[in-house]
User: Fold this.
Amino acid sequence: MIRVTVWNEYIHEREFENIRKVYPDGIHGCIRNFLEKEEDMKVRCATLDMPDCGLSEELLCGTDVLIWWGHAAHEKVSDEAAARVAAHVRRGMGLIALHSAHFCKPLKLLLGTSMTLKWKECDRERLFTVAPSHPIAEGIPECFALEKEELYCEYFDIPKPDDIVFEGWYESGAVFRSGVTFTRGNGRMFYFQPGHEEYPTYYEPVIRRIIMNAVRWARPVNRLTAERDNIQITD
Amino acid sequence: MIRVTVWNEYIHEREFENIRKVYPDGIHGCIRNFLEKEEDMKVRCATLDMPDCGLSEELLCGTDVLIWWGHAAHEKVSDEAAARVAAHVRRGMGLIALHSAHFCKPLKLLLGTSMTLKWKECDRERLFTVAPSHPIAEGIPECFALEKEELYCEYFDIPKPDDIVFEGWYESGAVFRSGVTFTRGNGRMFYFQPGHEEYPTYYEPVIRRIIMNAVRWARPVNRLTAERDNIQITD
Amino acid sequence: MIRVTVWNEYIHEREFENIRKVYPDGIHGCIRNFLEKEEDMKVRCATLDMPDCGLSEELLCGTDVLIWWGHAAHEKVSDEAAARVAAHVRRGMGLIALHSAHFCKPLKLLLGTSMTLKWKECDRERLFTVAPSHPIAEGIPECFALEKEELYCEYFDIPKPDDIVFEGWYESGAVFRSGVTFTRGNGRMFYFQPGHEEYPTYYEPVIRRIIMNAVRWARPVNRLTAERDNIQITD
Amino acid sequence: MIRVTVWNEYIHEREFENIRKVYPDGIHGCIRNFLEKEEDMKVRCATLDMPDCGLSEELLCGTDVLIWWGHAAHEKVSDEAAARVAAHVRRGMGLIALHSAHFCKPLKLLLGTSMTLKWKECDRERLFTVAPSHPIAEGIPECFALEKEELYCEYFDIPKPDDIVFEGWYESGAVFRSGVTFTRGNGRMFYFQPGHEEYPTYYEPVIRRIIMNAVRWARPVNRLTAERDNIQITD
Assistant:
């Protein structure tokens, strides 16, 4: 059983009627709803307004894979909470960062780059599967389209990914490394570009399948009980 | 259910009494015996003396993961059989090449380097897990030893691996990238250094666990029904 | 001084008036003309109609970086010539494969995949620099356009590149890993997508700069006098 | 001309007679002394006791490649200075971290892992060149030895390196990824294990050659005048 926590800052859905109509249970609720139908997953949600920003030590200890959606409130996540998440990833917890979560604090701590990109509001996106042997690509077609998605464009300032699973094409002239994986210590991470809050992206079957695949791929294979420290060898 | 075929040239075990004593059912038989106890695997064997070098189109079509042990008879594998194996790997079949199989024809076709190395007969080896987040490292300690193993030493002429999962240390002064992964097309490969025919390496629980992990990791996630061809896009 | 050989099958330019008008000295002549102005390069040309397919052992021994353009006559390059080129790359010679040379024999031997892709005749291409720290990207803008280029589209069946330096976007809906690097043994390779024979791509200053950068990057750093062999360590 | 700054915390050499005997000008002085003989390098030194920890904005702006040696005083480098260094690396400055600098603040900021390892005081080390096509390996033998070096052992908690150029073997049973490269944004980094302060490692010709190669490899190819920011595309 994979213990999944879907974390969401949960701001846009409460502030804007049009977004609430798309995601009446919040983006986190939408993602929980489709994941919890999977027999090998046990899913809960957490949001920024909870104690410890919804990212307590206890919650993280009981989380195998953390899914993260954030956009307007990256700076409201405390440095302590961000550091806890980063530490748990290094110890083995999986992290799936969606859309504007490219800019979330834990990812910046773990990857060390500016995570900046170019963007534009609405465009048509096509995604191409460029790592067909990767478990996250299982059952995903070679190419699929999203009629409306926020355009993200290179240069995307990430470290060289372990794998580029999906490449994005945008009608008005952009490309983006849309699905990329990283490892840090014992933990695995997947960043996935689609998911602007105004569009029903997380209802798309192909997007759901990718997130399910990513959860299974990112589960810890060797989880540590504490962060690593330098060790002197004594014979 | 993962359909595993254990292929062995099966020569040393028939020629030499001392090797037959270590592997009375052949190396392939020893590997089959421990894999077939796994509930998610269906295992069969094939050997060089069978028709089509034991590597018929039919057998490969029914194989999800091919394990390969060879040493004395690499050149007796026909070019046709080697090309069939390489094509099936590109289409998605997993390939696990053990020990002196670094020099087998399919691996050379798929990797494009000389696959040469330095070697010496008997030494003590320690293996270090250097990719603790990799599924092949699941449950494997950070360091473990093999009291007797053939020494393989760098420079090992392989392409840059996708992952170096295990690094080998040898008492008399050698290091080796002992467990390495590659992808080609839709297929995944794992090369693993231990397994000289004179030593009971494949009876070691840690080695068995690594091979089991590798089988699960190398299963096809998107298998093609034919080799890829250039395709002209017509709107 | 970097000794560069520009190899071209040299067929289209002789057969078709419209192509000869674009490249009156052949594509190889055009590339030689701009490279030979560089103070650190000594450039010569070779073509398929020469003895040994223009790829004699002597020529390769005297070549630091081989540039390859081919399209219509991949099969007319002898297996012996292709094997010689691959061996020299493994020994340290640089190889720059341009446009339809994705399908040339030496690259297939060295990379082990089908090298297939999707294609369509004419489109507008934009290229994005996605590895700004790479020497091949020195002085190249973050994005530049080619008004007319043949469209190449994913899935491009290559092994995972060491670096993706350039990503291509095409107006009619395609993306492509347009500039990618590989190493095999002591040799370095760069594949670069632009360069359809009907368009004046090799007159573009940005394309010329990329090819110059690639020549400098691909020069041998440690060249071997013979191919590697397995070596037994004797104390 | 490559502008090199050799930064050293410069503590051991002042505190301990035996270390001062090995490095009477400090480790930084020793490294400057051999680098400044190179015609294409302009070298200066900086130490922790200078204003701004010796890492002022002005100095970093005038530095193409920063070499870093630190051990006892990682925490005395201010967070501001560490952040400045990391920002300059992302903008294109090269960084060469030596020996116990695996634990320096800028590297931790840039790489995101714990950078922990196992260690033991004195051992014999052999280094193997495992990326013979890499510019840092130019002119370096396939294997060389250091009679006395501090033992560093796996698991070394680094992100997957772009390249592992050197692998270390230690007599008492350890392996280590001793020479590894990373890129972040426009900057390139090389971590190199040898260089314990009690041993004359930086007088070894092969070690000097590696550091010279690394300086040339790490020079900026595209330097930014400011850190990147998210950019909205407006047509």
